[in-house]
Amino acid sequence: MNDLVTLWVPLAVLGLGVLLLLVDVLTPPKKAAQADVGWLVAVGLLVIFGATFLVDVQGVAAYGAYRTGPWALFFQRLFLVAGALAAFGGVEDVQKRTPGRQGEYWLMMLFSLSGMVLVPGAQNLLLVVVAFELMSIPLYVLAAHGKTDPDEASAKGNAAEAAVKLYFVGALSTAFTLFGLGLLTGLTGTTELARIGAAPLQPLAALGLLFVLGGLGYKIGMVPFHMWVPDTYQGARAPFVAFLSVAPKAAGLAVIAGIFAFGMQTQKSLWVGPLGMAAFLSMAIGNLLAVTQSDTRRLLGYSGVAQMGYVLIALATGEEFGLAMVLFFLVAYLFTNLGAFLVVHANAEAGAGFEVDGLAGLSRRAPKLALALACFLLSLAGIPFVVGFWAKLYVLLAAYRAGLVSLVVAGVVLAVIGLFYYLRLLRAAYMTEPTVSRPDERFGGPALGLAIALCVVAVVGLGLFPKPLLDAATRASHDLGVPAAAPHVGAR
Amino acid sequence: MIASYIPMFLIIAVGILLATVFFLGSTFLGPKQAKGAEHNTPYESGSESSGGRHVRLSVKFYLTAILFVVFDIEAVFLYPWGIKFRSFGWLGLVEMLGFLGVLVIGLVYCWKKGALEWET
Predict the structure, then answer these.
(1) pTM over cut 0.95
(2) B-chain residues near A1 (CB < 8 A)
């Protein structure tokens, strides 16, 4: 019974899924086509999110395979918020595209979330893999949802392509991860995260770690495993991509932090090099390739690759401070990227398409939407007074304190390139004439507007008052149990 | 540590060796005769093969099989639970009822969605 209490967050998400199943099946067929079950999902997830602040449960469950504490809770809150925002953002789209079958979409999403909230608490490699797959498999289904859409002939087939690419890459990455974890387990004879650090420093351990990094690198879209990102982002529906581009990446980073920074903390010499290299390549290739994109979804996809590079810098420090900055960055990235995708989606809903040129004259067609886009893009670029600025600053600060100076220099230089293409989007939205003007344009429904508004509030609010989030991130990172920072190099 | 992997490498080596010996043996020792179209047909118990390789099965079979597995697992859990029922007490009963409740909801879902209808 105690186990059930400790596991209450995953169970609550599953319970919401069961409730949704009942609602879906007991709704009369006549009403089913109009039912916005997405509202139920979003509100339910927000209720669970609120409950995480009231319920104080810490401890281990399932014979030590799962541990809940500030670290797990931080990620769980992140996932719940991401799920709620994506649900608000997708209600109308799902209802419009698959009337009468909305329940399937939301069920898959909740099942994916139930795996996701298990991931950060997993203390056993077996549970890590199972929870990760529980998260991933519904995502493949979601990517293909509504692929046979009658009213959008041009986009037909793209969702299938997106799903197949996501699926093959996902299956391959699981095989990679399992092979690497197999080597580590073979070296130490244990599947417990806390004890795989006993692996001797030898080539086989390095090989295992490389395979794990490769497998998880696919999931977070890290160079050189980023090929699927732009295609999947372009093919799948934007509200789903908004979710895909933040939550599973955060889960992947939770696992990387758990295995590398926590589990293998004594083998830091083995992984700090590959991780730093991956960080540099992700920043460089993501930023450079984003410049040439003409589709906003592909552009945001490559920009996401670059952003992952920045997170990996902080992760490569392997210290408590660096990991806190990873958490801070992930929250900033959650609101920023999710919001940006939803704005792009809203613009496409108005019939302007997903091309960068489609944003033309957005400031006149929809001033509020353009302002929201400006907030998100400035945050992605790392301009002060929005949360993205603090995220980039803290990440670079953590890397500087850990002595990764070359990565800091690369990060700053490449951020300037990033500024170029983010401003290109802004220029399209603010400084070009609208190509077509239709006075009756509709930029999605009220739920989509609500999701974007919440994202703007978070991006600006956390930009002005980053302290509470910073404290929470520090507490969570302390809970993981990685070594505290080395002697201070710079001032805090 | 590497030393403990030696048996594994031995197995791999023996596998490669055996495969090589068999292939080379059949190439060099086997009867040399003209290879016609007959030679290249897939061999199945001496009878000629017929039809295409791709047999289309109705998705209903998979659906039924998966539903069977779900409720089969239920039985797998119920038997050991039934044997130890007394020592679990009331808590065990409540927990099992919760498990069954979730399964019943699943059954209702399948039923209402028409997964149990064969003719649709």
Answers:
(1) no
(2) 91, 95
